[in-house]
Amino acid sequence: MFCGEVLPEQDTTTAAEASLWSAPHTGMEFVPVPGGSFRMGNIWDDGGRDEQPVHLVQVAAFQLARYPVTQAQWQAVMGHNPAEASGQVFVGDDKPVVNVSWNDAKDFIARLNQASGENFRLPSEAQWEYAARSGGKEQKWAGTSEEKLLPEYAWYSANSQGRPQPVGRKLPNGLGLHDMSGNVWEWCEDIWHPNYEGAPTDSSPRLGTAAGDREAERRVMRGGSWNFNALNARTTYRDWNDTGYRFFVIGLRLAR
């Protein structure tokens, strides 16, 4: 380098960051999830029967929020913060919103879509798992298959200090998504079914159920949370709750 030479500024933006799309109304960042096919379900055969049978799913490209919806983002749209009901340790603008039912999530999305003119939605269960597994890779947790490395990627019962933590503080998975394992459970669009028999193979949400079936009121949750263990944070682990159920471990993440 010659004395006095002015070097051009280096662009330190990563390829993943450069491809993000930011929602104008809330500043939510969305990560592109490329299309592909994957074997959905517990390919290691060490989970529950609800994670079976393993089946091939084709996923079209979509976008998924980089982080769970934060309390500041929820407040901007809904005018209140449901996390406050659980005490001050749960509150923080950059913490994931909690105490959100599936019905609340749908209301939030409807209001956000009306205000922004966008078409945000909840991900399907297949989309969620495909994205959590870094595009369908064989990853037990979002970003790693080694449990000893899980504290680098997730907030769960072993390291969360008994409360939800600010989003994005842990390592992302291979697609650049944060907190897909742990921090808060995330609602999916799908109606709960006890296994994958008859599940869609095109990554669409599974909605079919008998008229009046109790399961129509149950929706899928994924990802585990800050007060659940490593088992629950696995990318193939499934759970459910009623559409009106609120709790301090449940939040949401948007797709588009």
TrEMBL record:
Recorded superkingdom: Bacteria
Domain Sulfatase-modifying factor enzyme-like: 29-256
Record-level Gene Ontology MF annotations: formylglycine-generating oxidase activity
Transmembrane segments: none
Name of protein: Sulfatase-modifying factor enzyme-like domain-containing protein
